[in-house]
Amino acid sequence: MSSFSLLHKDVERIVKKLGIKKPTLVQDVAIPKLLNDDNAIIVAPTGAGKTEAAFLPLLSKMLERGEKNPFTMLYITPLRALNRDIFYRLKKILGELGISVEIRHSDTPASVRRKQAENPPMILITTPETLNILLWSPKIRPNLSNVRYVIIDEVHEISDSKRGVQLTLVLERLRRLSKNFQIVLLSATVSNPDEVLHYYTGGKGGIVINTAESKKYCIRVLFVSPKVERHMGVLVVKPDMKKVRDKIISILSKIKGRALIFTNTRDMAEALGVYLRKVAKYKFGVHHSSISRELRVKVERDLRRRNVDAVVATSSLELGIDVGDISHVIQVNSPRRVEVALQRIGRSGHFIDRPSRGTIIAMSIDDYLEALSISMLSERGEVEPVDLIEKSYDVLAHQIIGIVRDFKFDFGRYPSIREVYNIVRGAYPYRNLRYEEFLGVCRFLEEKSRAIRVRNGTIGLTRKSLALYFENLSMIPRSPKYTVVDGSSRKVLGELDEKYVFELNTGSKFILGGKCREVLRIDHVRREVIIKDSKELSSPPSWIGELLPVSFIVARNVSNIRGKISRWEIDKLKKFASLDSLRYINKFLGTDGYVYESNVVVVEYDYAVLRRGFIVIHVCFGDKVNKILGLLIFRIILEQTNLPVVDFYSDPYRIIIRLYSINISDEDIR
Length: 670
Description:
By secondary structure, this protein is of the alpha/beta class. Helix content is 40%, strand content 20%. The protein is built from 24 helices and 26 strands. The protein has a 7-stranded parallel β-sheet with strand order 3-4-2-5-6-1-7, sandwiched between helices. A 6-stranded parallel β-sheet has the order 8-15-14-11-13-12, with helices on both faces. Strand 16 (452-455) and strand 17 (458-461) form a beta hairpin. Helix 2 (25-34) packs parallel to helix 3, helix 13 crosses helix 14 and helix 15 (393-411) packs across helix 18. The model has no long low-confidence stretch (mean pLDDT 88).
């Protein structure tokens, strides 16, 4: 007897009508457990049916208990695009059950928002930031007391950032309003699920449902040697995009179906899109967060309808958005983290019984070794743990204003300092927050921001409170933007960073949406760049952003792989890489194999190198550890030696100390 038989008869009927004959493994395990009221986290591969595993039993309980009040269920996702996808998937199930569902996020038109306030849906799909707004809304807030079920999808996406910290406090505020609700978290890659579950449930914890090991991944790593050119006596190394394009076309010619091509940055996605669109045999799209919503939706639709053969994307297509059946995933440059590799490559073979196939194309030695490391760790199921953030003061400052407003609205009075402090302590990241620390944040809000007023042990709001709250809703770092507008149709095509726009003039050319554009004029008042299409080849814009840090486990494994290749112990590596590439790396490593052993730290210098201004320390500890270690070493050299150090640079595999390029005596070096 399948777990579907445990569901409400109407839910079971709809499932059968949709052609879902039997539950997947995760659905079979999760449905009986979630029919109880325990909190839970579901960890299962992409395509395993996590959404239905969480949603069907909660929907069944809604029907059994007659819970058809406004906002009975909240479905929270980290991306607006994922909101749209979840909405269409749930509509298929809810169509005949008389249960309303709506989307609410920053793109929602004002007319729809008014409608939702007047006639709220029973199920709302939203984002963490929008939930902040809903708690403040006088019309919507009373209905949030009906919340009984909260699903947080792709929870790993926000859990290592301040978005996750903010959501824990928002959930604590919601818990004070609706008293008791069941939380279900969903993820494909969380390796410390129990910690994450405690994080979002205020320390209560719950059931861990983990079927992540049921998915098979087939990953291959290819090496494309970079261009090495000499300019004014300096060697310049840069990627050979034509070779990368040829590798991609070769892969596409061998697969049946469509492919996703992931890059780590938006400018690489744009550059690659232009190179690939020159190949007449295939149709390509480009998808990333700086392209307009309309263009992104069109690309998603084209992919589902098979109007394109492949789409070049950043993390915007990494999560569980339905883009149809994908045969292969190509990752250009190392994905830098195991969790990212599993998430992206898991988009192919989008069913639990099919292997997910992917190829990583590396363009440097470090990149290649890193990709090998990630592939090996992926096969072993070793994923980076989520680094949960604790006691973020800026998030706390923002939420104090929200908590004070909650009290004023619900009870007609302002809260005492202790009342606010006790609510904050209920959120897991702030369980160890000392009262003195909390008072320090309150003093900052009162004296520096002037957003609150503390009188006789009570916290009140000021005229600046509203603006400060809504100006700081998002914990996603953002830079000032300009909108890109087509000069003839007035359609919005995307956005550019302000810093980049200041470098443009009339006639300047850049790539956006995989097409070349020419600037007609720049309207600094309306913050618009008006463009027309251009046939001349140009460069992609530069957007402000950060690459994901390479983790400690990936970097340490790179060190092990270096040693194996230098000793030619490659049996376990041949599964992921070609012999020609491994021979190339072996030749590159040369005879100094000891340098690359995992238990050895090597400081590379000679008199000539020092006089040119560099000390190189080979240590494979990852981005975060190397940055701290580099700072420590730099300070020691600065304060305890005679070497004229200037600054330092670090990456996951080395620390470089830069010195003044002057004559240094032998005594100084010793």
